[in-house]
Amino acid sequence: MGVVNLNVREAGMNSLDYVNTVLFSFPGKAMVAVNRAAKRAGAAGKTEAKRYATAVYNIKASQFSKNTKTTVKVMGGGGGATKVIIRYAGAMLDLLEFKPKISDSDGVRYQAKRGNEIHLRHAFDIQSYGGHVYERVGKPRFPIRKKFGPSTPHMLKDDEVADPLGKRIMEVFNERLSHEIGRILGK
């Protein structure tokens, strides 16, 4: 399971102390503004995750969406701290999702991550069992094991995906928090 945490205390100039200072004459509105901005940042995290993952991994956006379950949770902690937790869950993807090159004599070659080809010499495709890729476990013909590629949460743990995704979520949070403050102040 991939998890992205957003801690409002670390959110730059729009920290919770700043929000409380600006909205001191509107009791309770600071947490309302933070919660709205956090929910919006979480929603942006859902959509941006597929954009960053498809840029690095060899998967279509529709496949990423279909195989990923996303939940956004906004939590208010002690001392007024707020945390947004975005959880990504998904099963391992079938190797056929990555369009492997299957050869009777050379095995299977595929690219889960763009530019990183993986060669499975003893793997093969069995059409009679639903068209999955299998690999021999030992020297004899059997047993065989079904082969999988990475899961979508695994893709989001990659630094090439996680770093820009976290930065984008923080940008959206700061933009939306400024908007919510202005909305409460009547600007």
Low-confidence stretches: none
**CATH fold call of the largest domain:** GMP Synthetase, Chain A, domain 3
> Can you give the mean pLDDT?
82
Adjacency order of strands in the biggest sheet: 1-3-2
Along the chain, the helix and strand elements come as EHHHEEEEEEEEEEHH
Task: Please give the radius of gyration in angstroms.
Answer: 22 Å
Polypeptide structure, described:
The protein is an alpha+beta fold. It folds into 2 domains: 2-92 and 152-185, 2-Layer Sandwich (GMP Synthetase, Chain A, domain 3); 94-149, no CATH class. Helices cover 40% and strands 30% of the residues. The chain is built from 5 helices and 11 strands. The chain has a 3-stranded antiparallel sheet. Strands 5-6-7 form a 3-stranded antiparallel sheet, with no helix packed on it. A hairpin with a 3-residue loop joins strand 5 (101-103) and strand 6. The longest helix has 28 residues, at 29-56. It is rod-shaped. The mean pLDDT is 82.
Provide a brief overview of the structure.
By secondary structure, the chain is α+β, with helices and mostly antiparallel strands. Helix content is 40%, strand content 30%.
Identify the notable features of this structure and list them briefly.
187 residues, alpha+beta, GMP Synthetase, Chain A, domain 3, three-stranded antiparallel β-sheet, 30% strand, rod-shaped
Break the fold down into its secondary structure elements and pairings.
Layout: E1 2-7, H1 16-22, H2 29-56, H3 61-66, E2 69-76, E3 82-89, E4 92-94, E5 101-103, E6 107-113, E7 116-120, E8 123-126, E9 132-136, E10 144-146, E11 148-151, H4 152-157, H5 159-185
Antiparallel strand pairs: 1-3, 2-3, 4-11, 5-6, 6-7, 8-9, 9-10
Helix pairs in contact: 2-5
